[in-house]
Amino acid sequence: MALMRYSEALRMAMAEEMERDPDVFICGEEVGQYQGTFRVTEGLMERFGPMRVVDTPISEIGIAGLATGAAMAGLRPIAEFMTWSFALSAMDQIINHAAKITYMSSGRITCPAVFRGPAGTGNQLSAQHSQSLESWYAHTPGLKVVLPYTPADAKGLLKTAIRDDSPVIFMEHAGLYANRGEVPEDPDFTVPFGEAVIRKPGTDVTIIGYSLMVRKCLTAAEALESEGISCEVIDLRTLTPLDMETILSSVARTHRVVVTQEEWRNVGIAAEIAARLADEAFDELDAPILRVGGADVPMPYARELERAAIPNEDHIIEAVRQVTR
Amino acid sequence: MTQQAVAVPPNEPEVRSRAFDLPRMYELMLLIRRFEESLYRKYREGKIGGYLHRYDGQEALVAGVVPLLEPGDLVLSTYRDHAHALAVGTPPGEIMAELMGRATGCAGGKGGSMHLIDPSRGFLGGDGIVGGPVPVSVGVGFALKYRAEQRICVCYFGDGAMNQGGVHEALNMAGLYSLPILFILENNGYAMGTAVHRSTAQPDMLLKARAHGVDARRVDGMDPIAVLEQAETALEEIRRTGAPIFMEMTCYRFVGHGVADNAQQQQFYRSTEEIEEWKSRDPVEALKNHLLGSGDLDTERIEAMERTIADQITAAIEFAESSPAPLPDTLYEHVFAKG
Ligand SMILES: Cc1ncc(C[n+]2csc(CCOP(=O)(O)OP(=O)(O)O)c2C)c(N)n1
Ligand SMILES: [Mg+2]
Question: Which of B47, B100, B330 to mutate to test the interface with A (most CBs of A within 10 A)?
Fold first, then answer.
């Protein structure tokens, strides 16, 4: 174990996989000579050379195409988007090509590409730079969608992503890059997809989150503890595959659920989970399933408005109070 | 067989007022420079959030073009947009208030540095997405042609944007439909930490525009007089012919890409010597020296300009700092149009 930042854990995962498999390479804007916009790829070009750490133009369609085609031709690309907000023009390559080629080729062609980069809201970056879009990808068959919360998960899940034969959408949170945590140094350490983790056990209500929202769920749970409400906090880790088993067994104990997401509340993953719970655990529920999500508006710049648009601990606490009332 | 996509009557040449002159251009460039400096100070004080991209060194690209525009002409720019807003005439106080996230800001506090906007003065806004404004300019140019208003759309974008697919679709369509757009490539040599030659095997930007059938020219953006003269010619031609012109304006940004691109980060892609060399061609200084030499300005008038600008900026800061934050219920306002 070593104490390191989330960003360093990601770098470690990539370096280990590049050592392990010569077919793994990185491409993206400012990943090499500039050492990475968020320093995630720092030092990797010096270590692995410009053929394996490829600086690209500001050409997101090209970056996604480079990764998709190289993966179809047998390599294991890691494409970095400077942020997921800039990947929108690349969605055709990802959704119409990477996500579908395995199906369209009856499994004869695979696309083991990882598309990664920072996502999420905050820092007054306003409408075009501050948004969470994971449900767009989770909606699409053929893509695995991964959002790590801890540094250890950042490493273990990214390694699994690189080794996976399907295209993976790997969304980091810019607000987590500086977070420190214990990370296994073992190069064989991986974290499997489709296994949610209980970050805090509890008995009265299940709070579900992922990525940065887990921190807010935990803070809310702690505050609610003093009110005598015991919360169980589940970190989903991957949206596709989705670990319904962990959710269902928790709900069978607590009978109350609050599902949180940072992205817009409308038509998001929380709605999907609520619907599945209605299908599969209707008899277990003692209260309506509540969703906490972002305000359904383009992100405003002003501090006061931004604060109101991003879901926070208070929103979660309020929702928990409602379902436990 | 080819078909005319839109039937448009030929444009008539138009005579514009000659009120804009070099001393005024200098004053605007000086305002832009001093304003950017003040924004940086306010950013360091924590009064401005988000990103902050400055125009220091590139002033002529805006000051030699935007003031030549006529009512009804429309401007689009990148996130490096403070100069553009100042040049269309947005009051500095409204810009400062926007950057401080106040209700009195030119975007009501919803946009911030990257999304200054002033539709009533013809500024359709700064765009946070590299290449983003260029396809939009095609639609704007189309609308101007459609209504046969003999108006012009001026679209600014960076060298990094030249590697965006959407930009090439847009140039092709502007050429195809012959739209009244002045494309201004702000070629400051770098897209963040990537030098132009590191991002394209064909650094001749004029060739790229010409490949789409768009008339293309290069002008030294460090030479304010050349910018003004060539912009004047280009705008006159577009108004007369209705056809697009692509102008590459070579320049240099004196400061980092944004505030996070500090001196240490910049060492990854450019040297202090290079920065100093370009600074020795500072366009604000160059125009000042020219005007002192020609006798169009003297030191007294320049000092008076500096004082006026300093007062303007002080007033802008006072206005912004005494303005209220947006009201909470404006959060859900304007998601949709009212109609
Ligand atoms: C589509 C997209 N990709 C990446 C970014 C991140 N980004 C913002 S500015 C920038 C550099 C742009 O350089 P250039 O076009 O030369 O304009 P300059 O900043 O030099 O004015 C990058 C990569 C973005 N905003 N949009
Ligand atoms: Mg540039």
Answer: B330
